[in-house]
User: Fold Histidine kinase from Paenibacillus sepulcri.
Amino acid sequence: MRGLNKAVFKSIRFKLLFGVLLITIPLIGLLISNNLYAISVVHNQVMQSNENMMSLYMGQIDASLKEVDNYLYSLAAADTDLLLLDRPAERNRNEYNIAKIAISNKITSDITYYKSIDSFIVYSQTNDDMIITENLNISYAYRKSLDDSIQDWLKADKKENEISRDRWSSHRIGDEYFLYHIVKAGDVYVVGWVNVKKIMVPLELIRLGQDGRAILIDDTGNTAMSDQDFINKHQINLASDDLTGSGGGKFLVAQAKSSQGAFRLAAIIPDSAILERLPYFKNIIALICIGSLIALPFIVLAFRRMILLPVKRIMLAMKQVKNGYWETRIEQFSSSMEFEVMHETFNTMIGTIQELKINVYEEKISKQTAELMHLQLQINPHFFMNTLNIIYNSAQVRNYPIIQEMSLSLVHYFRYMLFQGDKMKVPLRDEIEQIFNYLRIQEMRYGESLTYDIAVPEELMSCLVPPLLIQTFVENTIKHTLTMDEAIHLQIDIVCANPDRTKMQLLIKDTGRGFPDEILHKLSLQEDLRSETGEHVGIWNARHRLRLLYGEHAEITFANGEEWGAEIRIMLPRAE
Assistant:
């Protein structure tokens, strides 16, 4: 299982899928993070831009209110008629009325220079008398109601901290908010008065989106002096610097404080207006992400068809070739040009290798045939010299029957060597007849010192064996064992070696002293016993010939028998 998992991780399929995910996921993450960053940047820029705009408008409002403040302070400090209003009117009614008319005419004339203000009010707390002049176009009923409300408010007994003398403050009458500033001259109040709605008129031209608002906020209670219902509906936190609201959308609050009073100007901007274009890009990014997830299986399938399947075909073909099926070819099919070239090249390459393998095999056969012929000609030449020496000695004593028989045996021997010795295999009958000729020559040489017996079933006489194979070991027996002092018997037995009669055994043994222990040990290890003088070259030739002809199907072993001397056992496949 562990090896299988390792193979999966090393496969092209896994690497391609991992590579696609490695590229796709970071890209999607980058798109999402880039989108979030863009939203954050837009929020910051919109906040900064609107804060600057609110600061600009608040500066204009503060400048207008500052001009009104200067007028109020000037009026309270320089107008002597206010002193008469601070006295009880009963002391001098005419003088009081003249002062009242003079002040009314003055503020009525001066208010035309201050378009940002609604009213100038002069209130005598001593006489509970109020002079008011408006810069308004309103109905008489509304004006009468407003005047009465203001007079009641000024008439009421107030604590020192409830009436601001230095800053503009807010006051609510009914559902409307007003800004006021009171400058006190004795018990006479000189008041600047303006409706919040008038201050907010220029801000109505600002485009803050469908649900956007510009409002004036009272710092004392952190309440809106306009559109309070809208603030409550959307649960907007006027003190927040982040997105706020949960009753139908998110809003950004950009604010600017007034330097003239305890109030501030704020722009309520809906998030949908801030990101007017970004939702389009957000949808595109969402579509890209969803599209990537949907397209991923199709991309994998396309990779599989274009790359994995052609590679798989090549791998299967290579595995079959590895297992020895050299006839394997990759079928041509519609694919990428590169894979078509690879498939065609693979088929051509395998065909070429198959032809080369056949040529090499045939060359190897030819080489083995030549080597066998060479080995067969490497028979020990001592036999020929000894035979000629016997013929020469027999000629000296005029033993013509021996000369004739030995010459005839030698002729048969030479005929076999010339016409059969160059073959890779010969019938066993011919090989046995050659052994008889050879042993007869040796018998005439050594007399009674050599006896032999060859036992071969008739059914094996037609079997094919390598020529001169048996004679190699017969010559070794004659050469290393036979002496004139001690008689040697040579026994050759050839039989079937297994029950199904597919193999035969060639057993060659003698009554000599056997193999020396050192030689026998080397033979068991299949070591090369050849020496520079040519010793044991026959055994090496026999082994080499059997390996070339039969490979692993032939076997030769050497031993010393308990009742015999040397024993050579050869196992050969039976072939006719």
